[in-house]
Amino acid sequence: MTISEIVSLTGESSVSIRKGKKIISYDYVIVLKWQVVLGDADGNQVSKMEGKYELPDMSNDDEWNDWEVRVEFGEDADNLRSMLEQMVRTIAPKALK
What we know:
It is a single chain. It is built from 1 helix and 4 strands. It has one helix spanning about 80-95; strands spanning about 1-20, 20-40, 45-60, 70-75. A 4-stranded antiparallel beta sheet has the order 1-2-3-4, with helices on one face. The longest helix has 16 residues, at about 80-95.
């Protein structure tokens, strides 16, 4: 899976020090375009799928596995959606963190 485009990244973040401890806070809305290319053992492209990935409320108040994830899929000519949906929802938030 690759991120092909950052559609939008909005929000704010700050760093402050209180009682000698660094406090980091952030609140973002992120929209990305992604694509997955599946290949065979010889490196030939077998299938390709594209879509959009949105994190509408990514903040330091929540654990990364509690972030809401919205996934849109493009054309699914090879019926890969269910497999890719699981991958996009579980692997991508860890990678973004």
